[in-house]
C-alpha cells in the first residue's frame, strides 16, 4: 500500500477511463493526488473546462468517503518537459511526507503518454486502457451538436460519461461560451480537412512580435477563431516569399499599425527565440519565431490600432499582464514570461488556490 498514488491528466472532460484510474489509485494508496493540467488557460475547443470545473467532476465521480482521500492540484502548461517533470515532483513533495512511498497510476495510450517515463523514482501502477472512450470523442460529439441536441449527441457515449460530467456538459451548453467554442471547433475541423489529403502532416511556420516600450507590452485581441477575443502577440504565418524578419515587420504593420522605420526595429531587436513544442497550437504542428524588441525609453510610445486579424491593438502595462493569464491565446503568455524573465520586469502568474491548494508553476501539455 502506497502512501500516495498520483494520477496526471487534463480530464477534458472526466470520463469512465479517468474514474477507473482514480479508483485504482485509491485502492493502491492511502491517498490519491490528481494533477489537473492546462490550468489557468483560456477556454478552448481542446480545453473547454476550467481546472476548478474538472476538479469538481473528479470529486463528484467518487463516493464521498473516497472523494475525501483525493487532493486535486492545478498545474500550468509551460511547454518544457524537464521543467514540468521537476515541478510535478516538487509539488507532490509539498503535499506528502518526506519519506512517503509514491506510485504513479497510468496507461500507455499513445505518444502523449510518454510523460509516464519522466518519474523513474515512482513505481508505475500500470493499467490497461479502460474501454475505447476518450475525451476527444466526447468533445467532438459535444461541439458537433447544438444546445438543444446535446443529450441525443452524447447518448451513445453516456455509459462512459459520469453523471457529474453529463450535468456540466448540459449546463455549459446553455452559456454563451459554448457557441464561441463550437465556432472554434468547427474552424479547427476545417483546418484539418484542408490538409487531410497531404502525404505528411504539415508543419506550419509563424512569427510573433514581443514589443516592449516604457514597461508596456504591445498586445492584440484576436478577431477570428481560434482564440477569438483573446489577448495575443502580433504575428502570423510566414508568407512564401518573405523572410522571417520581413514577415514579422509585415504582421506588426498589418495588425497594429505601429509605424516605425525598419532601422528602428533593427536597433530595438534583442533576440529571436524559437518555440516549437509539438502541442503549443491546436491548429497543428506550429513552430514560431518570436522576435523580442525593446524600444528606447527616449522614443515616444508609438500610436497603435487594430487591423487585419486584430480586433484591437493596445499597450498593456507589464504589471497588468499576469492578471490576464486566463484570457491569453495558446502559449503567448508563456512566451512573454520567457522574455521578461531574461530581461527584467518578470511577469509573475497570479495564484488562484482552491481550498488552500497552492498553484504550481507549469505543466507539460498533453
Notes on the structure:
With 366 residues, this protein is of the alpha/beta class. The chain folds into two domains: 178 residues, HUPs (Rossmann fold), CATH 3.40.50.620; 141 residues, Nucleoside Triphosphate Pyrophosphohydrolase. It is 33% helix and 21% strand. The protein contains twelve helices and twelve strands. Strands 6, 7, 8, 9, 10, 11 and 12 form a seven-stranded mixed β-sheet that branches. The protein has a five-stranded parallel β-sheet with strand order 3-2-1-4-5, with helices on both faces. Strand 6 and strand 7 form a beta hairpin. The radius of gyration is 22 Å and the shape is globular. The C terminus is likely disordered.
Gist?
The protein is an alpha/beta fold and 366 residues long. 33% of the residues lie in helices and 21% in strands.
Radius of gyration, CA atoms, in whole angstroms: 22 Å
Q: What is the number of independent domains?
A: 2
Percentage of residues assigned to helices: 25-40%
Low-pLDDT stretches are: 351-366
Query: Helical region count?
Result: 12
CATH superfamily of the largest domain: HUPs
* Structure summary, number of beta strands: 12
* SSE succession: EHEHHEHEEHHHHEEEEHHEEEHH
For this structure, what is the CATH class of the largest domain? Alpha Beta
Biggest sheet record: 7 strands, mixed
What fraction strand?
15-25%
Keywords: Hydrolase, Nucleotidyltransferase, Transferase
InterPro entries: Cyt_trans-like, NUDIX_hydrolase-like_dom_sf, NUDIX_hydrolase_dom, Rossmann-like_a/b/a_fold
Pfam families: CTP_transf_like, NUDIX
Protein name: Bifunctional NMN adenylyltransferase/nudix hydrolase
